[in-house]
Amino acid sequence: AQKVTQAQTEISVVEKEDVTLDCVYETRDTTYYLFWYKQPPSGELVFLIRRNSFDEQNEISGRYSWNFQKSTSSFNFTITASQVVDSAVYFCALRVGNQFYFGTGTSLTVIP
Amino acid sequence: DTGVSQNPRHKITKRGQNVTFRCDPISEHNRLYWYRQTLGQGPEFLTYFQNEAQLEKSRLLSDRFSAERPKGSFSTLEIQRTEQGDSAMYLCASSPPRGSQETQYFGPGTRLLVL
């Protein structure tokens, strides 16, 4: 069975602090994809990043970085120097075959 | 049009009524997904189309739910004999053909309230 766990339900940080959102996944398939999505208060899910199971190279995009570790089945997301506009619910997702499995999300509040 | 569109954006109905939602994917995307999202939860997969073929259906999709994509373009999701537990946001997403840009682009959703 496939499962995505985001243990952090809510996180609050003060602007300019760094914050890491955790994601742990479960699957027995060797081929899979991992995603992070942002859902701002407006509600529309916005794609942030996709990784496949064969590519453990970490990635940095501006203030965002992702750490994929197959050994611990984790795909964590770090925001550096957080900003108020980063306030949103962030979802980690796993794709196996044609199905996507989402975590329950982490609600991030960045306090000015 | 540069994104996925969904209509209506909001729907209020009485228990027992039928409702139908429409999703228009990004034009060159041949893959289409329906999800349901309740408050405080992540999206739950309902069904997947590749062109006009419905290739995956979740066990969440009871026999009161039916989805179609007759010409491989827009899709409809119908809920018959709605129940209060059907109240949720229904999300549609589309993806291009398999390749380097494999990701989903989500629409704004249709929020359903069953009274």
If you had to describe this structure to a student in words, what would you say it looks like?
The complex is a heterodimer of chains A (112) and B (115). Chain A is an all-beta fold. Chain A is built from no helices and twelve strands. In chain A, strand 8 and strand 9 form a beta hairpin. Chain B has 115 residues and is mainly β. Chain B contains no helices and eleven strands. Chain B has strands at residues 5-7, 10-13, 19-24, 31-37, 44-50, 53-57, 65-68, 75-79, 88-95, 105-106, 110-114. In chain B, strands 2, 4, 5, 6, 9, 10 and 11 form a seven-stranded mixed beta sheet that branches. Chain B is globular. At the A-B interface, strand 5, strand 6 and strand 11 of A face strand 4, strand 5, strand 9 and strand 10 of B.
Task: Provide key terms for this protein.
heterodimer, A: 112 residues, mainly beta, six-stranded mixed beta sheet, four-stranded antiparallel beta sheet, 12 strands, globular, B: 115 residues, seven-stranded mixed beta sheet, 11 strands, 0% helix, 49% strand
List the helices and strands and how they pair.
The complex is a heterodimer of chains A (112) and B (115).
Chain A: E1 3-5, E2 10-14, E3 19-21, E4 24-26, E5 33-39, E6 46-52, E7 59-61, E8 64-69, E9 74-79, E10 88-96, E11 99-102, E12 106-111
Chain B: E1 5-7, E2 10-13, E3 19-24, E4 31-37, E5 44-50, E6 53-57, E7 65-68, E8 75-79, E9 88-95, E10 105-106, E11 110-114
Parallel strand pairs in B: 2-11
Antiparallel strand pairs in B: 1-3, 3-8, 4-5, 4-9, 5-6, 7-8, 9-10, 9-11
